[in-house]
Write a structure and sequence with these properties.
The chain has about 400 residues and is α/β, with parallel strands linked by helices. It is built from 13 helices and 13 strands. The longest helix has 22 residues. The structure holds pyridoxal-5'-phosphate.
């Protein structure tokens, strides 16, 4: 299948979500295909940030903790994220970073499965997930064993010592999507828990943690949720584990009564026990605006448009850029919202595209990643981006020293 630019224009004209683009502050002349790494700012987020800084921090000062709902923000916003990931509001809290939340919940998984010591993961996962598990296992010594098996061997490796498997729902490099319900059921069949990282799926595709019987989950606030650079992350604990789960970062705001100022830590009976210290209010203000925007959108329409955009991207690339490999599954139901292509000069190609205003990213050794968003990507942008890619490949415009020089962030 290939499609003319006029046909892409017709798709935009018929798109029921086209108006949402106006909600984002995107610069002219840029085709942004990297919302899977850093979501762009909703206009409401920028307004919320200035209001929270000037009116709340600036005028109400410390009274804001009570007056402006600062204290409740982590659970209030967690409750909103719950609606995007198929959880109950009291099962989700916003806190810390994805890395830190994974540390807490992986330790928490061990606390829920006394007598079992293995945390099971697979190679090729997003590095922080494996690195955090390595740090936790080193800290716990004999009480925990980290087993990292080759990709594809995870389910067969679950055994009677497995406390939990830790797995990313949508893979950062390939966009491959796991069947969350099936993998969770395989873990449960052996008495193990499933801890999911939904960083690349929350706000992007349908996620239904409770329908899949997931036990625990972590996810990122600054990718598809548009929370802003370094936005706080979220964590999910299924209701059946709340009150029982224990985590080691027992800070004062996870205490049952923080303002009793007790010497001994008594964990809160609810999901607050998984939070640690003072929440980053300015970042939460931006994140809440991003979440509110997502909640205003019809999920079924968003999912259908996301699949259509990424399907179109693949079809155009396959028709126009035969020298590129496809590292993502071809069926939309088997991937997230980014499409991964391969080329040995991938880094230089991504740089050459950026010089033409098309922003994707590169993941070593040879993957070019392009993310679409049903909230702000236009069908014509997908068409124009692939046309730029086709031209850069045909003319070898990427083959210049300035495109090959590696920057710190790829
Ligand atoms: C983006 C991402 C993270 C981010 O972790 P930080 O603590 O925010 O740096 C973690 N895991 C996965 C799978 C991700 O995609």
């Amino acid at each position: 299948m290939s499609l003319s630019r006029g046909e892409a224009e017709a798709l935009d004209a018929a798109d029921p979500l086209a108006g949402l683009r106006q909600e984002f502050d995107l610069p002219d002349g840029v085709i942004y295909l990297d919302g899977n790494s850093l979501g762009p700012p909703p206009r409401t987020a920028l307004a919320r940030l200035s209001r929270t800084a000037a009116a709340e921090w600036g005028r109400d000062l410390i009274l804001s903790w009570n007056l402006n709902g600062w204290m409740e923000a982590p659970l209030r916003i967690g409750g909103k994220i719950a609606r995007l990931v198929g959880a109950e509001p009291h099962e989700v809290a916003v806190a810390d970073s994805t890395s830190v939340n994974l540390f807490k919940l992986a330790a928490g998984a061990l606390s829920l499965r006394p007598g079992r010591t293995t945390l099971l993961a697979q190679t090729g996962e997003f590095p922080t997930d494996l690195h955090i598990l390595q740090g936790l296992a080193a800290l716990l010594g004999e009480r925990a064993r980290l087993r990292i098996v080759p990709e594809g061997e995870l389910i067969a490796a679950i055994d009677e010592d497995t406390a939990a498997l830790v797995l990313t729902h949508v893979h950062y490099r390939t966009s491959r999507r796991w069947d969350m319900a099936a993998v969770t059921a395989a873990a449960h069949a052996k008495g193990a828990l499933a801890l999911w990282d939904v960083s690349h799926s929350a706000g992007a595709i349908g996620v239904d943690l409770n329908a899949a019987r997931a036990d625990l989950a972590v996810g990122c606030g600054y990718k598809h949720l548009n929370g802003g650079p370094g936005a706080p992350a979220f964590l999910f604990v299924a209701e059946r584990h709340l009150g029982t789960i224990r985590q080691p970062l027992t800070g004062w705001l996870g205490h049952a009564e923080p303002f009793a100022f007790e010497d001994l830590h008594r964990p809160a009976p609810d999901v607050r026990a998984l939070t640690t210290g003072t929440p980053p209010i300015l970042s939460l203000a931006a994140l809440e605006a991003g979440i509110d925007l997502h909640l205003s959108v019809d999920r079924a329409q968003a999912e259908a448009k996301g699949a259509a955009l990424s399907d179109l991207f693949i079809a155009l690339v396959e028709a126009g850029c035969p020298e590129l490999g496809l590292a993502s599954p071809r069926r939309a139901a088997e991937r997230g919202l980014h499409v991964s292509l391969t080329h040995k000069d991938g880094y230089a190609i991504v740089q050459a595209l950026a010089a033409r205003g098309v922003i994707g990213d590169f993941r070593a050794p040879d993957v070019l990643r392009f993310g679409v968003s049903p909230l702000f990507t236009r069908f014509t942008e997908v068409w124009d981006a692939v046309e730029a890619l086709r031209d850069i490949l045909a003319t070898r415009a990427y083959d210049r020293p300035e495109h090959r020089a590696r920057k710190a962030v790829t």
